[in-house]
Amino acid sequence: MTAPKSTDVFDPAKRSAVMARVRSRDTKPELLLRRLLTDLGARYRLHRKDLPGSPDVAMPGRQLAIFVHGCFWHGHDCPRGSRVPKANRDYWLAKVARNVARDARNRTDLAAGGWRVETVWECEMKDREGLKGRLAKLLDETPRA
Description:
Blueprint: H1 12-20, H2 28-39, E1 45-46, E2 57-59, E3 64-69, H3 89-112, E4 116-121, H4 128-141
């Protein structure tokens, strides 16, 4: 009996190479967020492994954790995030659902530890001035301890 034919357009080695290039740290949206926070005079730490979910940006003195999420990978309700690939649809629906569940668990765990949690979505990066205003307001609401 032969194995079922894959719907993937790449062979497994090529798919592995493609997926290995998908960055999880220092992405363009993350770098932009960090630049805006620096412009606002904020001090922060990156990818704190001792916190649930390793927030992209953590401000311990403010007890503030910020995640930068890609709309597709984390199931945002914007046009880009609600898109589901036609190929291997069931896999992608399950994958994104697992990511959403993990994100919710991390938010809950951080909140239980006294952290305020914010999510910045990839699509929000288009309006840089609006995002900078949101960040400035967020920093004003969470003064340093």
